[in-house]
């Protein structure tokens, strides 16, 4: 793993050595793609356009947020900003990395929540836009535009997370793949006809189950808050 982490640090160095204008771009991307935007921006917009799509975005965002936390407890995952010092790499080799206000994230880092949650929750919106495009155009380019934009967004989010030293590249890749798989798998299982009470009860159940799981893991001697 040390070799993989070291390669990730070198990749982050290469990203940070880019043109100065890219710095603002990457920081803007990582801020705008925060998972909370799914609930505060994407869900209201999707719901306004189509109720079923909006509910699907909310449902998948809820489940993927919970699952991301649970996966991080079991996969752990170092954060580049902390690992470069804790591993001793910074004292052995020349490391030219810069710190940003969003660099000092704590907690396990695998998989990337930005990539996983955003990728999963946006999946139903992208498929809906693809279906809409196919009804109005026979152009392959037009029909592939939504998924093309989705892919570029995920790539930009992933690179931004590496740039600010929040994640290693392999954590970003894992988040992107998990997000796409979750979005694809959960879209057809969205409880679109359920009442708001069902979603409140589900959210409460997920919260309580995560607290119970956290307690069990701590009791087992695994410090998930390391």
From TrEMBL:
Single GO MF annotation: glucose-6-phosphatase activity
GO cellular component: endoplasmic reticulum membrane
Alphabetized UniProt keyword annotations: Endoplasmic reticulum, Gluconeogenesis, Hydrolase, Membrane, Transmembrane, Transmembrane helix
Pathway assigned in UniProt: Carbohydrate biosynthesis; gluconeogenesis
UniProt entry tagged with the keyword Endoplasmic reticulum: yes
Topology relative to the membrane: Multi-pass membrane protein
SUPFAM superfamilies reported for this sequence: Acid phosphatase/Vanadium-dependent haloperoxidase
GO biological process: gluconeogenesis; glucose 6-phosphate metabolic process
Every Phosphatidic acid phosphatase type 2/haloperoxidase domain range: 53-187
Pfam families reported in the protein's UniProt record: PAP2
Cell compartments where the protein resides: Endoplasmic reticulum membrane
UniProt EC number: 3.1.3.9
Hydrolase keyword on record: yes
Annotated transmembrane regions: 56-76, 116-133, 140-162, 168-186, 198-222
InterPro entries in the cross-refs: PAP2/HPO, PAP2/HPO_sf
Principal subcellular localisation of the protein: endoplasmic reticulum
Protein family per UniProt: Belongs to the glucose-6-phosphatase family.
Protein name from the UniProt record: Glucose-6-phosphatase 3
Organism: Circaetus pectoralis (black-chested snake-eagle)
């Amino acid at each position: 793993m040390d070799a993989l982490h070291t390669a990730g640090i070198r990749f982050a160095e290469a990203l940070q050595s880019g043109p100065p204008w890219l710095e603002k771009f990457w920081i803007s991307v990582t801020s705008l793609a925060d998972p909370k935007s799914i609930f505060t921006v994407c869900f209201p917009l999707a719901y306004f356009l189509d109720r079923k799509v909006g509910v699907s975005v909310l449902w998948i965002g809820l489940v993927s947020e919970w699952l991301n936390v649970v996966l991080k407890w079991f996969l752990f995952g170092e954060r580049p900003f902390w690992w470069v010092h804790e591993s001793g790499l910074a004292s052995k080799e020349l490391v030219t990395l810069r710190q940003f206000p969003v660099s000092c994230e704590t907690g396990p880092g695998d998989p990337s929540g930005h990539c996983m949650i955003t990728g999963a929750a946006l999946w139903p919106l992208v498929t809906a836009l693809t279906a809409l495009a196919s009804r109005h155009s026979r152009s392959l380019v037009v029909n592939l535009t939504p998924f093309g934009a989705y892919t570029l967004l995920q790539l930009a989010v992933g690179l931004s997370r590496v740039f600010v030293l929040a994640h290693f590249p392999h954590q970003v890749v894992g988040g992107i793949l998990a997000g796409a798989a979750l979005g694809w798998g959960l879209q057809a299982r969205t409880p679109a006809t359920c009442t708001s009470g069902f979603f409140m009860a589900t959210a409460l159940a997920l919260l309580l189950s995560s607290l119970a799981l956290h307690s069990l893991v701590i009791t087992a001697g695994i410090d998930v808050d390391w």
